[in-house]
Design brief:
The chain is built from 4 helices and 2 strands. By secondary structure, the protein is of the alpha+beta class. A two-stranded antiparallel ribbon has the order 1-2. Bound molecules: zinc ion (ZN) (2 copies).
Length: 123
């Protein structure tokens, strides 16, 4: 790793910086392309995730750990082996065509008018 902040920048440092800028830009463009073209559609639907969660939120830091959360649909308690918790359980996501991860429409359809609603909490 080059000593980044120590002047003078050598030619190799400028080139390295340029390479990094290009790699970073290419990564974003690749993700944007995948987001738009949905090349892993079957896999995505098997995971019951929307395009945003599947292509953009992926690859982030997921810490192993133990997380519990309640499904926003049916309130069933779900358990996860990472610190990342889904919003809905798989059966609810399937039944209502939701992204299990963010709880939005599985196809990110903003025109959708019907979402399942929980019965009002009494407490
Ligand atoms: Zn549920
Ligand atoms: Zn989602």
């Amino acid at each position: 790793m080059a000593a980044y902040l120590t002047p003078p920048f050598l030619e190799t440092d400028y080139k390295l910086a340029t390479d990094r800028a290009n790699t970073s830009a290419a990564g974003i463009l690749d993700r944007a392309k995948r987001l738009q073209e949905d090349p892993q559609r079957a896999e995505r639907l098997a995971e019951q995730e929307c395009r945003s969660c599947f292509y953009l939120a992926r690859g982030g830091m997921v810490q192993p750990g133990f997380t519990k959360s309640d499904c926003v649909c049916c309130s069933k308690t779900m358990e996860f082996s990472t610190t990342r918790a889904d919003r809905t359980c798989m059966p609810c996501a399937h039944e209502h065509q939701l992204c299990k991860r963010c709880g939005g429409d599985i196809e990110m359809n903003k025109d959708r008018t019907h979402y399942p609603s929980q019965t009002p909490q009494t407490a």
